[in-house]
Amino acid sequence: MDQPQEVDDDTPLLMDINKIENVITDQLQALERMKSTLRELRAQRFMDEEKQKTAFETEMREAISSLNRTLQEIKSMCAERCNDQLPNREEIIIENNAMFMEGLEIDDQRAQNRADEPMEEETSESEESESEDEIPVEPEQQNRREVELEEDPHALHENERQAHPRQEQNVVAEARRRIEQEIQRVEQAIRNFDNIIAEIEDQPRCAPRRFGGRVDQNRERYMKCAFCNAIGNHYSDSCSNVRNINSRRQLIEEKELCLTCLEWNCPRGNRCRKATVLCFHCREQGHHSALCDLPEQSEEIRMRLNNARESKQNCLERLWDLNHELDLFPPAM
Questions:
Q1: How many domains does the chain divide into?
Q2: How far apart are CA 230 and CA 23, in angstroms?
Q3: CA distances, 154 to each of 1, 151, 308 (Å)
Q4: Does residue 246 sit in the same domain as residue 285?
Q5: Judgement on whether residues 251 and 217 belong to the same structural domain of the protein
Q6: Domain with 227 in it
Q7: What are phi and psi of 6, to 5 degrees?
Q8: What is the SS3 assignment for 224?
């Protein structure tokens, strides 16, 4: 029964309650850090997706603007062509009318000449005159066709003008729908960042650890640093030679020092003379201030909080831009 229990690789089973509590605390803190990292990864992934969506929306808006410009150019070209064709048709009609009037004058002259000829030729002349009188009728009919052709382009142009606004309305409606969907996604992102910020702000924090300095009290001038063994130079908590908290804990375990007072000759546990002393950083018992990892965690918390606030501010600016763009596409009446 006195044989020590072992785990794999001939490692003795951890039985000291203080060490077990420290291990549990370390594991819980590691899990909390992993949880925070996962939240940050989700937030970063969301921001990357938003950037891609923003780039796609920008490309779509540019394409829509280019389409609108093309439609305006087509409408302008159609209007210019119709305006250019109207004078040409008027000139053709005037020219045909002039030819018709000239034909009438020629017919009158021929009729006068026929009146001077013998009566026996009057019948044949009248027949020829009737046949010649039918010739100018064709330009008049042609004029009516020209007028009809003149009216047709206007009707076609009117149809085009009626079709183009419908197409523009569809484009505007599609652009407005996409912007409204983007606004909903950004608003949801802002709510998510508000939850993340509130959760981070609820986590315990403390001031940064102070490195360097010197021993102030005269009775502590022979105090030795538990990590770098410097005597009377600085407190163990302010040791700048060993800054990492994991390295400090490893040194304490290798030296088999007490986690509460950092001394070797100590009964440990509740019998330690500093068992009830509160940690300077987290205000809890059970460990020395030099071994408290709250200052390092506080620095990470401050960085995550700043990143979350910056991401929220970016979303607010994006929301303002989207609302401004939405005003450029008024809803259909």
A1: 2
A2: 28
A3: 110, 5, 61
A4: yes
A5: no
A6: 210-241
A7: -130, 155
A8: strand
Where does the chain have alpha helices with state H?
17-115, 122-133, 137-201, 245-255, 294-327
pLDDT digits (tens, 9 = 90+) for 12-46: 666 677 777 777 877 887 887 888 788 788 888 87
CB 33 within 8 A of CB 298: no
235, 224: one domain: yes
Q: Which of 253, 271, 290 is the last residue of a domain?
A: 290
Query: Which amino acid, one-letter code, is at 201?
Result: E
Tokens representing residue 245 in the block: 């908290």
Alpha helices in 202-259 (DSSP H): 245-255
Instruction: Give a yes or no: residue 256 inside a domain.
Output: yes
Q: Is residue 279 in some structural domain? A: yes
Pairwise CA distance, residues 188 & 32, whole Å: 25
DSSP type of residue 293: -
Query: Is residue 118 assigned to a domain?
Result: no
The overall pTM is greater than 0.70: no
Please report whether residue 215 resides in a domain.
yes
pLDDT 10s digits, 294-316? 999 999 999 999 999 999 999 99
How far apart, in Å, are the Cα atoms of 152 and each of 78, 85, 136, 149, 159? 13, 12, 25, 5, 11
